[in-house]
Prior knowledge:
Elements: H1 3-20, H2 23-29, E1 31-34, E2 37-40, E3 43-46, E4 52-58, H3 62-67, E5 76-82, E6 96-99, H4 106-117, E7 125-131, H5 135-138, H6 148-161, H7 165-173, H8 182-187, E8 191-198, H9 221-230, H10 239-250, E9 263-268, H11 270-283, E10 287-298, H12 299-316, E11 324-333, H13 345-356, E12 363-369, E13 380-383, H14 387-391, H15 395-400, H16 404-409, E14 414-415, E15 425-431
Parallel strand pairs: 4-5, 4-7, 5-6, 7-8, 8-9, 10-11
Antiparallel strand pairs: 1-2, 2-3, 11-15, 12-13, 12-15, 13-14
Helix pairs in contact: 1-11, 7-9, 9-10, 12-13
Amino acid sequence: MKIDEMRTIAKKIIKGGVEATDPESLVKSNFNKENGTIILAGKTFSEEDYEKILVFGIGKAAVAMGSGLNGLKLDDGLVITKKGHTYDDHRCPVPIREASHPYPAEENLKTAKEFLDKLDGVENALIIFLISGGGSALFTSPAGDISISEMKDLNERLVRSGADIYEINSVRKHVSDVKGGRFAKICEGKGDLISLMISDVVGDDMSVIASGPTYPDDSTFEDAVDVLKKYGLWDDTSSKIKNHLVEGIEGSVEETPEDVQATNILIGNNLTALKEAEKIAKEEGFKTIILTSHNRGEASEVAKPLVGIAKEVQESGNPIRTPAALILGGETTVSLDEEKGKGGPNRELVLSAAKELKGRKDIVVASVDSDGIDGMDKAGAIADHRTVKRSKKDPDEFLKKHASQNFFEGLKDNLEINSRTNVNDITIILVGES
Length: 434
């Protein structure tokens, strides 16, 4: 098989993986209605058992997820999506509001209040909650007298601190009225709550997706304070936030719930995309292996062992014989320093792989962020053994500057995809015979 054909197939595989996680399609495939019965992800609800049916949604995929319930007779609801995010609103059955992302602003406070006000006086309702990536920032309701500007400052400093997502969430949940299972508590006594989730989190921990508004939380106020002190943030944290956290430790503010009355169901994740990618690769005649959906680490370093596996496959047929498709996903990262150009983890992975592929024919590496932007304005990139020679540029220079998008731009090897959600990265390595 010629290398250009392999490149075309790699792009086709990635496209199919992304399409498999389209949020509207995922909801549609988990929704059915017949003879007064609503079926959601295998759970059955009788319309006559409820006085109202409400649909809410948060996240960058909220509008598309809501559109998947088109045809369901609703009494009320609201979805909150990212401000400036492109979406098709004509099929969404409930009102749409936009809010700031990745950090909350005054408009987030307003939309959250409108969201919560719709639950006032509600009894005996079926509450359907659609959750996707970005929901944590978009659905912001500060606890106590904490201001939205204090929340924004706290979030910015947490993200810059080096804390991991679990540590960040332990703080977010304890300064919020809706995160960490608190929204589920608000819904108690108002009917049945079912949440359909699309994961943008490696490992699919439902307590982390959008900071787990309907999921039990086992972190504590003490954990939140420990995180702020561990990363040197405590002294500069606002007095209102510190007072709230201390009051929580003392027991005068209720802890996040360890148990909630809600049904939480994952309807799409990175593995959903990888399985569809594998299906397409098989149809194209490749032997396949899904290596992992948990790939993590510095993108430029992760690329080296991946190319090493591809070389082993080509030389020895271990762990799979050629022609082979190595399929993996997860979320790699880039550690930025003073030099910051246009790039993104997936392009850095591919550029680093291109260096390793010099002189090694019939291997193609392609990687994209399924959200379509990889932190910038392109999804990812594709490379083979000819890439570095074709460019006549020093890949190390572009890696150092984190300018991998510029490296691939001249080759027309940046990849662009249309996507309405994020289920992390999709990486495809096609290996032909040596």
